[in-house]
Amino acid sequence: MSATSTARRKAPQEQSLWKTLRPGDVVVVVAVVALAVVLWSGSHLSAAKVTGAELVRDGTVLRTFTVQELDTDANYAFESLGYHYTIRTGGGRIRFAAADCPDKVCVQTGWIDRPPQVAACVPGHLLLRMTGNSDGVDVNNR
To answer: What are the tens digits of pLDDT across the range 102-113?
Structure first.
């Protein structure tokens, strides 16, 4: 065997991806992409009807936020069990923007914007929850 024939056998065969695809492969790819778009858009279009938000301590509603207040960029200061909180609204959302509690899980929760989402501060016994008609989802894990 000559050196050129050995080199020729070891060289990988180069083929274009489009040359290796068959018509059935293209149909499957298009179907998967279409299904992904439908599922994604369906989850975003079935948004719950928001009626506002509530700040609750030990089962007692301390403050109710209207839809108009949720749409307005604003900060609200609250105190609970010796801890101080800043709640921010805007764009139809609400969040604990700042807190001096030890773990700050409430701040790390971030924005909530549809029921039944909640943000909670255990040391301050506070629960910030969206109100309205739920879309059937009980819990969102992040």
So the answer is: 999 999 999 999
Range of the domain at 40: 3-45
How many other CB atoms are found less than 10 A from the CB of residue 90?
15
Same domain, 77 and 61: yes
For residue 127, what are its two tokens? 């629960």
pLDDT digits (tens, 9 = 90+) for 50-68: 999 999 999 999 999 999 9
Q: What domain count does the chain have?
A: 2
Classify residue 69: in a domain, yes or no.
yes
Residue type at 23?
P
Q: Is residue 142 included in any domain, yes or no?
A: no
Q: Residues near 130 by Cβ (< 8 Å), separated by ≥ 6?
A: 48, 50, 52, 53, 94, 112, 113, 114, 115, 116, 117, 118
